[in-house]
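Holo model, iron/sulfur cluster. Inputs:
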Amino acid sequence: MNGLPLNEEREYLPLSRLSQAEYCLRRAALLMNEQLWQENIDTAKGRMEHSRVHDHRIERRGNSLKLYDYEVVSEELGISGKCDCIEAEAWESGCMIPAANFPVRLYPVEYKHVTVREESSYCLQLCAQAMALVEMYHAHISEGALFFISSHRRLPVVLDDSLRRQVRQRAADLRMIRNTFSIPPAEYSPKCKKCSLKEVCMPKAKRSAADYCKRLIREATGEDEI
Ligand code: SF4
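Output:
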């Protein structure tokens, strides 16, 4: 962990689960508490395209560095994880990091394999990485970027107070489901169509089962509504 001291008595939740929690809290709970994972075409493509990024290394060019697969931790959020890439450029008012002997400005970049889009879950993950870096190095980070691998396009993301509040809320949600080992009930939404866990989650089946029970009770009691 980049030589960082971690509190061994503390469980740090995976940073990547924050974006899952933003997408669907039930999905995050199934992944984290039930250790469920189902591959689909999207997750397989993402895994393959990420494999080059997930090679821990530092590239230097003059006073610029690119730190790939860089581990970060936030005591405030209780999370740890990795940044796909952190760009570090010499800057007088910047912070010091172990990989450079001059002050730098940090700019986190999160790699995505999907088509270009600014999804809140992606922005939230990027912001959480920036918050961890701010905590680790007393950095000032007001912007990062999403890099879309297939199209080679880069989308800047402003990391503002509103996004930071959202990160804190999702971290609290994750901590709650972890501490209680709870799995929130399924709520079918358009997101379920793309969710790799839909076969095990069965969001429609749960609703159908509930509807079925209601119908049985209605028939037994002769009531129109329950
Ligand atoms: S199928 Fe829908 S409700 Fe179930 S985990 Fe996925 S997104 Fe959430």
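The chain has two domains: 13-184, 186-226. The first helix runs from residue 16 to 23.
Archived with the compound record.
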